[in-house]
Amino acid sequence: MEEAALSRPDLRALFRTNTRALVATDVFANRADEWAALQRSLVRVVETRRDRAFDVEDVQRPRRNVLVFYGVGGVGKSTLSRQIGEVLTDSGAGPEHWPPVDGQLGRLIPVRIDLARQNGVSFESVVLAVRVALTELGRPLTAFDLAFLRYWEHHHPGDPLDEFLRRHTMLNRFGGAGRLRSQMDAAMGDVASAAGLPGTAGMLVGQGLASTVRALRERRRAARAVSGCRRLPDLLEAEPDQDALSFYPHLLAWDLAQLPEEKTATPVVLLDTFEDVGDRVHRDVERLIQRMVWLMPNALFVVTGRNRLQWDDARLEGQLDWVGPTAWPQLVPGAGDDPRQHRVGYLSQTDCEDYLRRRLLIEEQPLMDAPTRRVLISHSKGLPLYLDMAVMRFLDLYERAGQAPDMSEFDLEFPALVARTFRDLSAEERTVLRAVSLLDSFSVELATAAAGLDYDAAALRLADRPFVDVTPGAQWPYRLHDLVRTAIRDTDTTGDDRWTPQDRRRAAERAFDAIGNEFTRHRGDRRVLLGCLRQGLRLAREHDLPLGWLGDAALDYVRDFVWEPVEDGTGDIDSPAAALGETLTAVARRQRQHRGRTADRLRAVLSAGLLPPELDELPRYFLAECERDLGNLTASMDGMRRVSAGGGALAPDAARGLLHLERRLGHFTGALARAEELPPGGKKHRTIGEILWTQADVTSACAALTRAREDALAAGQHGEAALCQAYLAFTSAFQDRGRSLEQIARAERMLDGVNVGFADLQVRNARLLLAAGRADDMAERVDDVAALAAANGVSSCAAYARLALCFHAAARESPELMSSARRRLDESVRGEEFAYLMEITYFLTGEDVPDGLPRAHWIGGEARVRAQWSGLVAERRRDIGGEG
Length: 884
Description:
By secondary structure, the protein is mainly alpha-helical. The chain folds into 5 domains: 7-29 and 347-412; 58-121 and 265-342, Rossmann fold, CATH 3.40.50; 140-258, no CATH class; 423-655, no CATH class; 656-883, Alpha Horseshoe (Serine Threonine Protein Phosphatase 5, Tetratricopeptide repeat), CATH 1.25.40. It is built from 41 helices and 11 strands. The longest helix has 22 residues, at 862-883. It is elongated, with a radius of gyration of 39 Å.
């Protein structure tokens, strides 16, 4: 908050305490942005009014004279409206951080009207309020006064206007109420004199009315004060009912336009609690008020309420007189210039802190301590209504105990929040609201299905409420404000139409089925898949629903290697949905944590035994993968064989996993033969490429990996494609520097935003291979990558990094470097596992392989592979020499 906000005595708090030292103030929070919007709006309206081309009688020109502040109940709209009204009066003292109104705007006359139902304000009162406020001009508004007096005599015979104004509390608070009748009488006298009639109300009925209208139509010079208002005669001849009254503001606007600039003023009409007249079902009063706004283009109307105005919606034609973006170009969403519609935002943390710190004071110190303030600010989510309720609760507990309460005594839930939220919702809207409170986000279609309705109207109305946030372009674009959602879920226990737990479960079932239908319709769309999984898992877990379509969605999720997080995981595996959610969370997190942690979580899922048989392969397969990465080859093989034998959706992946394990052991000939028989779903070409690079057949390996990448892209499996590209970058780095640089760059682009830890490490290894023979700090760089791989439990990437150091030593023809590099590589060799990498190091230097080292089954024989590896070293030496 920029400056101390304006405050006044808080009477509610004052009458809840006997503590004399306690100072309770009603704090007005910083609304500097809203005040700036008002200033811009005033400039626009005044400039338009002063333009020589402006014609107040032009009823076809688009209107730009409505400023709207809308937001959820309790956010401070009425306070803002009151404060604007006070600041715009001559005596109004506003917040210190509000700059003064531009003095070049001329005279401004604020008229604030609270349209709340309990105030009993009629449209007649609204029109009278504006006219009474304009008595400050000190002169008759002849055209309007003439028409209005005829209306008054017709509707209130025997009830003098001045007596009525004295009785009417809302109208009487305007200072000019006592002067209105005298100004109207003066207007009557002027017109009567021009028309040659007695200046009484009688001139407005019978023959007198006809004479008055004839004078206006024919004696323009004599009745010049009003004869220029071309629509006045027609309004006088029309039946003086409420419908005609709604057109009289045109006469007010005309009267103001006739005054010289130094004598006129710009009315600023503040219409608060607009939701009570614009309830979106019965728009009768809203229609009348809209006419007033349209017919007074030289006035600024400031509307505050819970909902945005829908006047820009052409579908309301027939319910309102002027609708659509052509009529109201600055009321459309996204309009850039004021006056326009502004959503009154929730308070910032700084505003909340200032509010709570200064609301209750003892000896000029905050009664509420800083830790308490922090807790309440966190729970409030910026909603002033919550803060207000929290202050009252705090004060009650303080008075009861004689000291500030501990937060353990403080109930942070307020059922009144639900009542305030439901206050102006229809029964169907309340049903939809309760249904979507079960969801993180929703669409109109999903909301309708969850509520069990057959039509979208209620969901459409709810989606336009200010406590619903909107993210354009999102799969489910609407989201309840967190505090509103929490209040409905936790404290909706007192309403006559409150839901039982069974009602909530039925709504959850409907929402779950609707989300499943969306998954089926958009199967193959990764964004939809993730959204459906996240919401579906939460619904199934919270309401103990059968997994249903979630099984297919989970398998679709693991067929790619993108690994976006699905949910946070609860840690409690107490239902099938919790077990499935824990599985997917663990599998995704293995890219960012040690494989040992992932393995433990997957073992816990299998031990719980809650997954149906067709989904049991999910944790089992990925546990086998983790065991492989951790170097537990026997356990990994057992898991892979079990999944492969089961013949489920992951059986092809398990078959490939077994080949991967064979490759680690150096059983290349058998692995390649079985890889050729893999179906496409088993990542056939990637598996072949992974085998061939170990044979130093770089060209064939790159061709296989390129095809694997293209197949994955064609299938929409971007994570798998990125993994293939990372392997391609690694393999090409043994031979072609230029090609490898291109492949590395492409891999990094494809991995941007994708969580595939193994692929990231392989790209790092590709850069190590490029540096082999060239970099003087090669050993340190290798140690960094190996350490990172070990920290993530990815033993293969650590081994490949150490192989790169051996390749570097061979390229530099340094026995000392090679001896040191082999010692590092030996850390990765466990019996047969990765022994083939050590064997390759002897191929690189042309040395004999020592006895006792397990020997690999090389494709085409050892001699062929030895020659290929030594050829790569010779080529690297030539490249380095050519660079020199």
